[in-house]
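User: Can you model how nicotinamide-adenine-dinucleotide sits in this protein?
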Amino acid sequence: MLLKDKVALITGAGDGIGKAIALAMAREGAHIVSVDIDGDAAKRTANEVGEFHVKELALETDVGDTKQIEDMVVRTIETFGRLDIIVNNAGVTRRAGIMELTEEDWDRIHRVNAKGVFFCLQSAARPMIEQVSGCIINIASIAGRGYIGASNAAYAASKGAVIALTRKASQELGPYNINVNAICPGVTLTPLGERNRVIRAQEQGVSIEQALENSVKPIPIRRANDPEDIAALAVFLASPSARNITGQSYNVDGGLIPS
Ligand SMILES: NC(=O)c1ccc[n+]([C@@H]2O[C@H](COP(=O)([O-])OP(=O)(O)OC[C@H]3O[C@@H](n4cnc5c(N)ncnc54)[C@H](O)[C@@H]3O)[C@@H](O)[C@H]2O)c1
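Assistant: Here's the modeled complex, given as structure tokens:
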């Protein structure tokens, strides 16, 4: 088992990519803190995690709120006594053209995707600095690297922020034996992807199935990601094999865009 008895906290673990990461890390022996703004969804994931005979804790936390982030880390340390891995996965968006975006869109998206990732990283780094070990994985997006099909410009900017933050944080936290890396998923089959696809289908005047085909066509490997494709890289980055990898952002996109 690659992560035996590590304590891993995953934000946005109630569904999609976060849920797949929680289950994949549990399968490798990690104890899981399942965090979501939807407390019932966090609990559902925690229940599934329990099937792997690891310990679990479900927390209802809005990662856009710094007080709730602090409480999330305090509860984790109270329960498990340490924090080895945090996956900053929670993210929001909506499909919109640049001229349709409002100040409310910008604030809502950056509150979770940029501010949320930064303060989760900072709060998790406190116990990790004391432990002199830790692993931080940020879920960015190929939207932050110029993907033409990105859901909107404010979202792309928030994910660019995550890629830059990953580099800078890795430099400052490296001396404490803390690795910081990011994953940039491409087209991934999750509820978020599905919501965007409904709007895309309306824009293109095609069925939802056809909109998915249109998204997959330019992918060299001709396949969208399952959430498990992202989870597999997260497990590797959290494993001892990745101990000298830090500050990197890896695309998992079937070759859709250059790094
Ligand atoms: N699906 C894709 O195609 C795709 C592509 C690139 C990047 N991503 C990124 O991957 C991450 C996960 O996306 P997904 O597709 O699984 O999304 P999803 O919407 O399917 O699941 C996201 C989960 O995060 C939770 N969440 C939302 N806001 C939150 C908040 N403020 N605090 C805590 N939890 C919150 C939701 O309740 C949900 O359970 C996001 O950062 C997203 O930007 C997704």
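A couple of observations from the model: The first strand starts at residue 7 and ends at 11. Helices lie at 16-27, 39-50, 66-80, 103-131, 153-173, 191-204, 208-216, 227-238.
User: Helpful, thanks.
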